[in-house]
Amino acid sequence: MKIWNPYEITGKWLRGSFHNHTTNSDGWFPLETVYKMYGGYDFLGISDHDKITKHEGEREIPTVFEAIEVSSRQTHMLLVNPPHSIMENYSSEFTIENYQRFVDLTAANGGFAVLVHPNRYFSNFWKLDDMFKMENFLGVEVYNGDGNPEYDIAFDKWDALLSAGRKVWGFGNDDSHVYGQEKRAWNMVMAMENTNEAIVDAIVKGNFYVSTGYGFDAIQVEDDTVVVDLRSNELLDKMYKYVTFFGKDGRVLQETTGRIKQAKYECKGDEGYVRIAVYLEGGYSAFSQPLFVEK
Ligand SMILES: [Zn+2]
Ligand SMILES: [Zn+2]
């Protein structure tokens, strides 16, 4: 059995979000305010609708990313580190061909594409068929912090892609527009250093997880066993945890609960992939990337 663990390389955990708006599109706050709202973050992407917002002015956030949210009436797609050349004769029209072109140009520019809020059925969402028609994108926004639990969670579509053998990562972002939407969901990236290149390198390899307040210290593989070290300290260790291991088709492989610091799952070989969700009592959560299992 071979288990592909994206968390093998260790570095330092960095916190950040790639999908946030300013007054340059329909956000309420100018860039300088958004920087302040995200004080304490290690990195931040600004992704206005159909515009690449230039990073300028004073900020404390060490690393920032240029991004754009390609925003047709039907679907939205996040491009992190897109080439500025995409703005020539730019159209957000949703065709697979047009969106695929953006994905490929961004990947060639050292960036990546994420299909965002795929379940936002009341406005802009992704049909699963269309997601399957797209190639070369890096991930799916499985947790969008906009604030509608019915529409902003998309583990079902992620599991559908993963179960069909697509290797795509799960992202968490605020998609912040208005006051109160900041710091709800983010990505914890295990990078060698806090630079754009090191963060993208780690993200492309899947060495990150989604958090809404809780986390993992490490995820390791020992023989055929996935060993999950939950974020631990004297205070957290007193609290109750709910750990779920999911496999292909979203099947629940194992649930482990208690005032624990670690959870283990021994792979049988038929899982397809194993991904881990953990909730701390009170609701703070973290969601790992899949570890692909080959028989
Ligand atoms: Zn959107
Ligand atoms: Zn957005």
TrEMBL record:
The superkingdom of the source organism is Bacteria
Molecular function terms, GO-annotated: 5'-3' DNA exonuclease activity; 5'-3' RNA exonuclease activity
The signal peptide, as residue positions, is none
What is the official name of this protein in its record?
Phosphoesterase
Which organism is the protein's source? Cohnella luojiensis
